[in-house]
Design goal:
Layout (H helix, E strand, L loop, with lengths): L2 H24 L13 H6 L4 H8 L4 H25 L13 E2 L3 E2 L3 H19 L5
Antiparallel strand pairs: 1-2
Helix pairs in contact: 4-5
Protein name: Putative ABC-transporter type IV
Pfam families: ABC_trans_CmpB
Organism: [Clostridium] fimetarium
């Protein structure tokens, strides 16, 4: 397991904790309870695979790159979600959301995945830069 995979996994976990904690506020949970799963670590860790993709698309504009990252996230979310759901281990269930697909993808999250993809892109690029001497 490489360091970028670990960093992406941890970063994803932190983002999920913040996201679910902030979401608790809107549900009137003043404890700001957050929720995640051990399964999410390797799923977020897969964002490290965006680095070679970024090398291929780095000359594209931000809109194009963001859309490509969104499609990548939807693909991973769908495949891991279906895999885990068949084993009754999926930590998320979007079945009650208006714009869901098979309960494992929410189309209304596309703008979020767009931004997260660009965030991971910047993070992965920063991870590879060597410190100035």
């Amino acid at each position: 397991m490489n360091i970028e995979f670990v960093k992406c996994g941890l970063l994803g976990w932190c983002m999920e904790v913040l996201w679910t904690g902030i979401n608790s506020f809107f549900k009137k949970d003043i404890k700001l309870t957050c929720n995640t799963s051990i399964w999410m670590f390797p799923i977020y860790g897969m964002a490290s695979f965006l680095k070679p993709l970024n090398k291929l698309i780095c000359k594209k504009n931000t809109l194009c790159r963001g859309i490509i990252y969104t499609l990548c996230f939807f693909t991973v979310e769908y495949t891991t979600g279906i895999f885990l759901k068949k084993r009754n281990m999926c930590p998320w269930d979007y079945s009650s959301a208006k714009y869901n697909y098979k309960g494992v993808i929410r189309y209304d999250f596309a703008p979020l995945w767009f931004l997260v993809g660009l965030f991971f892109e910047k993070t992965l690029c920063h991870m590879t830069k060597s410190p100035k001497k």
